[in-house]
Amino acid sequence: MQSGKPASLLFLGVLNVRSETGVKQSTISTLILGIFFLIAVLLGGSILYMNSSLDAEHTAEKRRTEFKQLGNDLADASDYLTEEARKYAVTKDIAHLNKYREEINVTKTRDNIPYAGSSFQSVSECFLKSGSAFVYSDIFACGRAKGGERFKFKEYRNCSKVYYQGDLIYLDHQVLVPGCQDLEGIGNTWSAKKIRPRRTS
């Protein structure tokens, strides 16, 4: 009888050890599963962030290339007009004047179309002497319409001043801000309090 007690106590002790070991293993398994889930979430987030960063870098590089090409085109056109005007002034050859007019009226390499998010500011001044004449034209585009960019620019400010013998006789200050104006219609009204005027002098 006395030898049976230690056996029963040993059996109960083994059960307790096994049950405690079982609880610990389930806790560890749950913890490991949670860690794996967290790693998977972080890995997925990293992949999404990397993809968005690559897309943003690709877009920035594309725009940089477009701006560089635009700048080169404008510079080339300006040099071309200057050269043709100089040649006509020196040689009086009408061919150079025709090339100049063709670039201004037909080719129009210097025409600039506002792109999404851009800001355009320009001030033009013309000083006339007695007996002189002034002819001016300006064409404005809503943006790269074929690409869905209709009035997507940030702002457009164009100021033109004409002086005759030192006196200001004509002033045109055009301000277009799509965020404050409905530019799709005719005779639109806009909120002047949202636009801070800028000095053009």
In short:
The chain has helices at 4-91, 94-107; strands at 119-128, 155-164, 167-176. The chain has 201 residues and is α+β, with helices and mostly antiparallel strands. The chain has a domain at 113-201.
Question: What attributes does this structure have?
Answer:
201 residues; alpha+beta; three-stranded mixed sheet; 2 helices; 3 strands; elongated
Give the strand content.
Answer: 5-15%
Gyration radius from CA atoms, angstroms:
37 Å
What global shape is seen?
elongated
Low-confidence stretches: 1-5, 188-197
What's the N-to-C terminus distance? 116 Å
Biggest sheet, strands in spatial order?
1-2-3
**Overall pLDDT confidence:** 75
Q: What does the main sheet amount to?
A: 3 strands, mixed
Number of strands: 3
Assign the structural class, choosing from mainly alpha, mainly beta, alpha/beta, alpha+beta, or little secondary structure. Answer: alpha+beta
Give helix and strand order, one letter per element, not per position: HHEEE
